[in-house]
Structure formats: C-alpha cells, structure tokens
Amino acid sequence: METTSVAFAFETGEVWSVDTTLLTYAGDQIPYLESHFTGQLQKYAQFLSGLGLNPPYHWIGGVTGVKDRRLVIPPQPGMTRIAGFRAPQCLSDTIIEKGDYDGQQTPASALHPLFKAIFEKCGTPRADYFPQ
Prior knowledge:
There is one protein chain. A hairpin with a 5-residue loop joins strand 1 and strand 2. Strands 1-2 form a two-stranded antiparallel ribbon. A two-stranded parallel sheet has the order 3-5. 27% of the residues lie in helices and 23% in strands. By secondary structure, it is of the alpha+beta class.
C-alpha cells in the first residue's frame, strides 16, 4: 500500500510531516500551495497546543522535486487567466525556508518567507493580492 502523506509527532514536541499529494497529481506544475500549507500549520499548532505546548512554534517548510515545473499563479480576484499563458518555470529543485509562528499572527503571515521564496526561485515576484 502507498501513501502520499504522513506525519510523526515526537515526545520532544516536534511534528514532522511529508505530503506529496498535491505535487504527485500536478504533472509538470507547482500548484498554488499556500492555502494547504497555512491550513496544515494551523492544525499542527492546535495539536501542539492541545498537548500543553505553547507558542512560539518553529517551523521548517519547503518543496522538493520542483525543478522545471511551472508555478501555478491564481489570477487576481475578478480576473481570468489568458489561454496560452506560460507560467514561470522553477529552476530550483528544492526550496526550504524556516521561521516562527507565535500563535497570534495568521498562518499566512508566519509562512510568508516560504511563499515568497517559492515565487522567487521560480523567477517571479509573489503577487500583492495574495494573503500577507
């Protein structure tokens, strides 16, 4: 039996997870991962809080196996993507960032360094209309 995601919780309070589901089915693309990552950070923080472990939580996150994939960039609300649009191609195979989540900020704000790095490594700035 195969799985595309797994998470481990250690007695030290560390949570390690690997989730290849979205990349597995995305073909030659890097799907928009931000809502998935923010949701997962929120769940892991709730889990740790439930164990009595209080923030700040240190995170290390990233993607791997993305070289030559094209970055999916959702259009601005109220806009549409023009047919034939060639999304930016990622030239890095692995993108990793780290930071802290204080439990008060939004998960998107905490993960902003990772989101920014994904766009930068794919040769394009991250759009201002995405959650900050």
